[in-house]
Specification:
This protein is α/β, with parallel strands linked by helices. The chain has one domain: Divalent-metal-dependent TIM barrel enzymes (TIM Barrel, Alpha-Beta Barrel). The chain is built from 10 helices and 8 strands. The protein has an 8-stranded parallel β-barrel, surrounded by 5 helices. Helix 9 links the parallel strand 7 and strand 8. It starts with a helix and ends with a helix.
């Protein structure tokens, strides 16, 4: 898209949203964001206005598809696009707490030859948006890494490199393993880098019938970077019997954890394409539970 067209969209978006207070406010203990690829706005300028409309505080932005490409299909290597997106986010007071490398849901982080270059691309994008967490799913790595052996060791070595790179940039790599807390703690010790922490996902625990509150407590505050606060698609969070949000909040309060709760899924299958309903409902319920006085 041409720069002039992007500028017109920026002006239109800002004029369409209600007046937003600009007074400095104390940062709440918990804040709520949505994933831009799941609200069908991956690296699209309208993601910030949509986030504002559904009352989210932030957007977890994706680096773009990877597939057979050498690098992510990331538009923010273009300085004009980066400037316009950052200006729009700031104007609407929508933060970008994290940048996702969702391409690794399908691509193998263990065997990808240019993983260092991909990480640098992510860190550079994070710097533009003042993001502090890089989401790295391990879904594309298969299952062999989960048991001790050469493949496991290769993953550990790469994650150590990634973590040390992240520390030098002042950010955190948050990995999603889908494993239990005991395994995650052992893995983090093996990685041996303060630049790598866990991106906890409610869905992984619910799928394996693990107690989310117990898992969070065992994992511990210092190992927990961020939370995907949603389940698989079935119903919205308010009606999901597998996710006891009040109990989870009490657990996180006692742990002394604070941070971002990011909605990835939990869509009502009867209206799966209704983005405003699904994500708006989930944001509303998360704030009702976590931000109530």
């Amino acid at each position: 898209m041409a720069v002039k067209s992007l500028k017109l969209i920026v002006v239109s978006v800002i004029l369409l949203v209600p007046f937003i207070k600009t007074e400095a406010q104390n940062t709440p203990r918990y804040r709520v964001a949505v994933c831009d690829w799941m609200i069908l706005k991956r690296q699209k300028l309208g993601e910030f206005a949509l986030a504002r409309q559904i009352n989210a505080d932030g957007v977890e932005m994706d680096m773009g598809p990877l597939g057979n490409r050498v690098l992510f299909d990331n538009r923010f290597r273009n300085a004009d696009d980066a400037r316009i997106f950052k200006h729009t986010a700031d104007s609407l007071q929508i933060e970008v707490p994290s940048i996702a490398m969702s391409g690794f849901f399908a691509q193998n982080f263990i065997t990808r030859e240019n993983y260092v270059e991909l990480l640098k691309d992510c860190f550079n994008t994070m710097e533009i948006f003042n993001s502090k967490v890089a989401f790295l799913p391990l879904g594309g790595c298969g299952n062999d890494w989960k048991k001790e052996g050469a493949i496991h060791d290769s993953l550990v070595d790469r994650l150590h490199v990634a973590g040390e790179m992240a520390l030098k940039r002042g950010v955190i790599i948050a990995i999603r393993t889908a494993m239990d807390a005991k395994y995650d703690i052992k893995l983090l010790k093996q990685i041996h880098s303060n630049g790598v922490k866990i991106y906890y996902n409610f869905q992984d625990a619910a799928d394996s019938k693990r107690d989310i509150s117990y898992e969070l407590k065992k994992l511990g505050r210092d190992n927990l970077a961020q939370i995907h606060a949603s389940n698989t698609d079935s119903t919205v969070l308010r009606y999901d019997s597998k996710i006891d949000l009040p109990k989870i909040k009490r657990t996180l309060d006692k742990m002394g954890w604070n941070g971002w709760l990011v909605v990835e899924r939990s869509r009502d299958v009867r209206r799966i394409k209704n983005v405003k309903y699904n994500f708006g409902s989930n944001v509303e319920y998360l704030k009702e539970v976590f931000l109530k006085k």
